[in-house]
Design brief:
With 89 residues, the protein is an all-alpha fold. Helix content is 55%, strand content 0%. The chain has four helices and no strands. The longest helix has 15 residues. The protein is rod-shaped. 8% of the residues are buried.
Length: 89
Amino acid sequence: MRRHISRKLKELALRMLLEHGIPDALISKYTDISTRSLERLRKTYHDTGEVVNVPLTLGRPRTLDALNANMSFLEACIEQQPDMTLDEL
């Protein structure tokens, strides 16, 4: 069964493991975090230095970069008529 484990509880469990050397089974008993979750927590901390995975960007990735599309349009307009003013664009 999935449940949210707070960042503070993860930090506590990691401190119990790293600073005090308490075995996973006892940490699991005291914190009610499964041993498998403790393994993932340890791996995440080892890989990132954080107790939670922090996404690099928020939201859905863009499929079309609007800036490139607009730049292509503007470049084509300037190629056709190099003396075009900004108001005419």
